[in-house]
Amino acid sequence: xxxxFLSRRDFLxxxxxxxxxxxxxxxxxxxxxxxxxxxQGRVLYNSLIVRDxxxxxxxxxxxxxxxxxxxxxxxxxxxxxxxxxxTWFRLADEGYVYSGGVQPVSxxxxxxxxxxxxxxxxxxxxxxxxxxxxxxxxxxxPGPRLYHGSTHWIKGxxxxxxxxxxxxxxxxxxxxSHYYTRPExxxxxxxxxxxxxxxxxxxxKKHIEIILDRQLLMAFxxxxxxxxxxISTGQKNYETPVGWFRTFHKRPTYHMTGGADIASVFDLPxxxxxxxxxxxxxxxxxxYWHNDFGHPHSHGCINMSxxxxxxxxxxxxxxxxxxxxxxxxxxxxxxxxxxQS
Length: 341
Description:
Elements: H1 8-15, H2 20-27, E1 40-43, E2 47-51, E3 60-65, E4 69-77, E5 87-91, E6 96-98, E7 102-105, E8 121-125, E9 129-133, E10 142-147, E11 151-159, E12 166-172, E13 177-181, E14 186-188, E15 206-211, E16 216-221, E17 224-230, E18 243-246, E19 249-258, E20 266-276, E21 283-286, E22 302-304, H3 306-315, E23 327-328, E24 335-339
């Protein structure tokens, strides 16, 4: 089947009759859960149980604490009928872990970029995680922990005069301050890597549809499906709003905080590829704190994998100019239609 001729109605009919992952794979349309097997995974839960079979009914072998790095040998289909996510990871040593509690990561070192633009540029963490510091040239104060796939606004390359080590200086919007991280752990994006695409398609011929009951996002050009991915929208008491919206406000990175009480509070530096659709902060954005797409998890936002969110960020309008931390154009932007079912 040629995905270039797949209409919205055709897609919904097929997706209701078959596994979404299998369907998207056959159509050649991207799907976050159908990605290649990661070599490494970071534990996202306070305690992740390793089982002897790829199912929650499997016997417990051991547990792994948060931020443990796992060696993943294979991705397998497990669970039971009715599970919204049936992807499990088989570990290289023994046992299976549920993929929703594991962030696929890698360990990639980068060359130091010395010509950082004066206004700054976006960079992405390419190791499982690292700890930043708030100050150079004196006893360091621990800064935020920076996770794989998170993005950060790099403002310059600095030298610690005590030992000659190099550090990137990154801006934190929440505190209007700067933190520092080692440059080999960050990939600095070129303009080409985050430039817009599908510019030949008129703005009014693009739109996004989000179906809450299916936890599914679909992008259309001329009412033809060009992209689809699993998402996680607002959980109970934090439901994602329904209706028509526009991606009028976009940022490559943002330090997000919120929550109504201790149980719901969150503090997430470097949230990547943010495409806002409401004035009160509801956005489509990348997610590094869970991998459980297909089930509501958020405080109203539309969670996507980092790769999916960057695609949406580049495909939608308006475009964030190189060297700018944000664009805000009230009344403009790609149309987003959110429905319950």
